């Protein structure tokens, strides 16, 4: 955990474990106030920002897109060949969020940037028998999202009432994990216990995850198809060679990100 007067951050998925996390690169949990993040660039990745609490404004230089995200909303940004953007809480707000970096396939790292805002009340959802599922990307529980993916990724928020059970279908070709936001649950055939603040990686055996809530349980789950490619990361740029990283810095400092 790192702290300043306006920002606290914890590494949920620390950078550097590229092959283990593939296609995911890192995930940070942030608590931040206005002025934490200045304008900054990205290239070669997608960022998936999930707002837990607070309200956050954002904009970028490529798509002309800006807006405000609130609790439960997701911003899916595809940096592609390069974008300069900013995420900033509204005045007086403290935003609590998760930001996941997803790698782009090497042949698509120079694709055109795009933004997708996913308000929580406009994504496919189901609620029955004490179980709420919102699908922000991919497919789960008979729900299908129309969010555009590059590397195929499923993302969902799941809430389960105390004492209730659920079974989530999984793609056996995907690598995946869940991060528990609230409560405690029992997961899988080995009855693994997970509590708030813990990351649980999903087994590659089988195509479903069974779980039971010990008390009100809330988590986000992410699965993605591995890319099996080299990863070279430096600051906000993730490419496949050091030469590509040098080119990214040259393009940024020479103003080509503004073209």
TrEMBL record:
<dbReference type="InterPro" id="IPR011051">
    <property type="entry name" value="RmlC_Cupin_sf"/>
</dbReference>
<dbReference type="GO" id="GO:0046872">
    <property type="term" value="F:metal ion binding"/>
</dbReference>
<comment type="similarity">
    <text>Belongs to the pirin family.</text>
</comment>
<keyword id="KW-0479">Metal-binding</keyword>
<dbReference type="InterPro" id="IPR003829">
    <property type="entry name" value="Pirin_N_dom"/>
</dbReference>
<dbReference type="InterPro" id="IPR014710">
    <property type="entry name" value="RmlC-like_jellyroll"/>
</dbReference>
<feature type="domain" description="Pirin C-terminal">
    <location>
        <begin position="156"/>
        <end position="257"/>
    </location>
</feature>
<dbReference type="InterPro" id="IPR008778">
    <property type="entry name" value="Pirin_C_dom"/>
</dbReference>
<keyword id="KW-0408">Iron</keyword>
<feature type="binding site">
    <location>
        <position position="85"/>
    </location>
    <ligand>
        <name>Fe cation</name>
    </ligand>
</feature>
<feature type="binding site">
    <location>
        <position position="40"/>
    </location>
    <ligand>
        <name>Fe cation</name>
    </ligand>
</feature>
<feature type="binding site">
    <location>
        <position position="42"/>
    </location>
    <ligand>
        <name>Fe cation</name>
    </ligand>
</feature>
<dbReference type="InterPro" id="IPR012093">
    <property type="entry name" value="Pirin"/>
</dbReference>
<dbReference type="Pfam" id="PF05726">
    <property type="entry name" value="Pirin_C"/>
</dbReference>
<dbReference type="Pfam" id="PF02678">
    <property type="entry name" value="Pirin"/>
</dbReference>
<feature type="binding site">
    <location>
        <position position="87"/>
    </location>
    <ligand>
        <name>Fe cation</name>
    </ligand>
</feature>
<feature type="domain" description="Pirin N-terminal">
    <location>
        <begin position="29"/>
        <end position="102"/>
    </location>
</feature>
<protein>
    <submittedName>
        <fullName>Pirin family protein</fullName>
    </submittedName>
</protein>
């Amino acid at each position: 955990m790192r702290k300043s007067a306006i920002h606290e951050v914890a590494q949920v998925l620390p950078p550097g474990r590229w092959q283990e996390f593939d296609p995911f690169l890192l995930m940070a949990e942030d608590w931040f106030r206005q002025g934490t993040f200045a304008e900054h660039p990205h290239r070669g990745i997608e960022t998936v920002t999930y707002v837990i609490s607070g309200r956050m404004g954002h904009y970028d230089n490529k798509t002309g897109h800006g807006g405000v995200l609130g609790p439960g909303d997701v911003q899916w940004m595809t940096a592609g060949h390069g974008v300069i953007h900013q995420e900033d809480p509204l005045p007086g707000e403290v935003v609590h969020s998760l930001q996941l970096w997803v790698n782009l396939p090497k042949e698509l790292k120079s694709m055109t940037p795009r933004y997708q805002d996913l308000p929580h009340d406009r994504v496919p959802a189901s609620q029955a028998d004490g179980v709420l599922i919102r699908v922000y990307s991919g497919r789960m529980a008979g729900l299908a999202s129309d969010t555009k993916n590059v590397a195929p990724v499923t993302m969902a928020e799941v809430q389960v009432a105390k004492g209730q059970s659920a079974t989530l279908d999984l793609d056996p070709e995907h690598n995946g994990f869940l991060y528990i936001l609230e409560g405690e649950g029992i997961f899988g055939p080995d009855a693994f216990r997970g509590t708030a603040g813990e990351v649980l990686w999903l087994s590659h055996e089988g195509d479903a995850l069974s779980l039971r809530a010990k008390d009100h349980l809330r988590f986000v789950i992410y699965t993605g198809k591995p890319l099996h490619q080299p990863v070279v990361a430096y600051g906000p740029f993730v490419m496949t060679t050091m030469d590509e990283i040098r080119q990214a810095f040259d393009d940024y400092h020479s103003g080509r990100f503004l073209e």
